[in-house]
Each structure stands twice: as structure tokens, then as C-alpha cells.
Design a protein that fits this description.
298 residues; mainly alpha; Farnesyl Diphosphate Synthase; globular
Length: 298
């Protein structure tokens, strides 16, 4: 990931990789199979974009990013659980994830379902465990936990997934597609940014800026993913390509075509970068990240 992240963001990535296993349950019980499946789901985590954003926004608000690690770990657990469930035969039926067999392929469907459920619960165990929150004001921790629940729930990621599933094989308009992706993809990225600001003691203006950045970056990220699904290879992405067409899914590419999808990704990236102006010269690392994500499709 060195080509994606600046030196400081790479340091955040290293913190996440080191800390995430410490928040997961340990083996040595009658539930070891699901414990191993949970760890497997979180291993080889690709970009770790969401937890890196949480740590960076905590840093931008003037606090040591280490205090945001429980929240960074929690959002990665939720993201990982969503991928476990997405890959299952009842959803996208994908045998590959992050360059290796998906969890249901490796552990079976029943254990994959339970591992996903367990990761969701573990995320909230983590952000509400007072042992991890000595340096975070209780009000900020509670607000961050609420945001995580809200953005991951029916008003966010789950809601977007529902629209996605019910739209397969149907024609939808641009507004419906945007609502779908605001939930399915942008919501968790927004949560990552918002939590970092809250834990870092950010001002109302800073939290609002983080929300806008996460929103537009999330929309751009999804368009980029849609484009890569038709222009890249499984080896490059670590997962099957062409799945959107195979499942007759609505995407920005299918709705707009490649050229207009490229242009919209550029527009959303520019809006994400503009939202960072409140952070002055400290915004350089996040600006570089947004630009590098966009360059993946050019």
C-alpha cells in the first residue's frame, strides 16, 4: 500500500495492522472455529482505508491517533463482516476476497454467517469497553459509537445493500443509484472520518468538514470500484471482476458509461478535497490520498 499512502498514513496503517488482532477474541475456547473465521476475515485487509481515515482525522484534530485505535479497529471489523456476508451465496456468491478464498469458501456458509455476526458485535464491545477509552471523553465515545451504529445500519450500509439487492435486474435512475451508494459505500467512510474527529476533540466545523469529505470520497470510491470492475483483472484487485454485470447490478458504468463515470469520479474527488480546507496545510496527506485513489482508473 506504499503507493497509495503517504509516510504518515502508512504509519497509521502499521498501527492498525498491529492493533487489530489485539481487539479480536483469542482461541482456547469451545468457540475456536468462529474465532479463527473472524481473524481470517480481518487478515490481509487490503487498503484498510476506513481505519486509516479514523486515525488521520484524530491526528488532524490535534490528538495522538493511538487513542482512536479502538474505533479504527471497530470500523474495520464492521467493514470485514459486511464483506463476509456480501460474498455468501445468498448475496454475491463470490469465492474470492482479498486474493484468497472468501470466508464461506474456507469455513462454510454457517460459520461465515456467525463470524460476520460476531464481528459486528465485537465492534461495539470494543468501542464501549472502558479499558480502551481512558483518554477519550465519555460523551465523545458515546457519540462516535452512535455514529458507527447509524452509518452501518438501515439508514446507511444495510439500507444501501437492500436497495442494491432489490434493484438487480431492474432499471433504476441516477437518484436511486446515488442513494444506494450513499448507504452501501459512503456511509462507513463518513463514519470513519466523523469518529476520528470526535475522538480527537474536533470542533463542530471540523466534524462537518470530515462528514463532507467522507461523503464525497465514498461516492468517488464506489465509482472507481465500478470502473475497475470492468477495466481491471482479478489479480490486480484480489477479487473476481465482472461480477456487477454477472449479477445484473446497477452501477455508474452501466448507467452512465465509462466516460461520464470517469468525469463524475473526478468531480466528487474535487469536492472531497475542497471540504478539507478547514484543516489548512495539514490536509496534504488526505488530498494526496484522494488523488491517488482517483488515479487508479486513469
Amino acid at each position: 500500500m506504499s503507493s497509495l499512502y503517504t509516510e504518515r498514513l502508512t504509519q497509521h496503517l502499521q498501527r492498525v495492522e498491529a492493533a487489530l488482532p489485539t481487539y479480536l477474541p483469542k482461541e482456547g475456547t469451545l468457540q475456536d472455529t468462529v474465532v479463527r473465521a473472524m481473524s481470517y476475515a480481518c487478515e490481509g485487509g487490503g487498503k484498510r482505508l476506513r481505519p486509516v481515515l479514523t486515525l488521520e482525522f484524530c491526528h488532524l484534530c490535534g490528538k495522538n491517533p493511538e487513542i482512536a485505535l479502538p474505533f479504527a479497529a471497530a470500523i474495520e471489523m464492521i467493514h470485514s463482516y459486511s464483506l463476509v456476508h456480501d460474498d455468501m451465496p445468498c448475496m454475491d456468491d463470490s469465492p474470492l476476497r482479498r486474493g484468497k478464498p472468501s470466508v464461506h469458501t474456507a469455513y462454510g456458509e454457517a460459520m461465515a454467517l456467525l463470524a460476520g455476526d460476531a464481528l459486528l458485535n465485537r465492534a461495539f464491545e470494543t468501542v464501549l469497553d472502558t479499558r480502551y477509552l481512558q483518554d477519550v471523553p465519555p460523551e465523545a465515545a458515546l457519540r462516535a459509537a452512535w455514529i458507527l451504529a447509524h452509518r452501518a445500519g438501515i439508514g446507511g450500509m444495510i439500507g444501501g445493500q437492500v436497495i442494491d439487492l432489490e434493484s438487480e435486474g431492474k432499471q433504476i435512475d441516477a437518484d436511486t443509484l446515488k442513494t444506494l451508494q450513499e448507504g452501501k459505500t459512503a456511509a462507513l467512510i463518513q463514519a470513519a472520518c466523523e469518529m476520528g474527529c470526535l475522538v480527537g476533540g474536533g470542533s463542530h466545523e471540523q466534524v462537518e468538514a470530515a462528514t463532507q469529505f467522507g461523503y464525497y470520497l465514498g461516492l468517488a470510491f464506489q465509482i472507481i470500484d465500478d470502473i475497475l470492475d470492468v477495466t481491471s483483472t482479478a489479480e490486480q484487485l484480489g477479487k473476481p471482476v465482472g461480477g456487477d454485470a454477472d449479477h445484473d447490478k446497477n452501477t455508474y458504468v452501466s448507467l452512465l458509461g465509462l466516460d461520464k463515470a470517469h468525469a463524475l469520479a473526478e468531480d466528487y474527488t474535487a469536492k472531497a478535497i475542497a471540504a478539507l480546507s478547514v484543516f489548512d496545510e495539514q490536509r496534504a496527506d488526505l488530498t494526496a490520498l484522494a488523488q491517488t485513489l482517483l488515479k487508479r482508473i486513469f
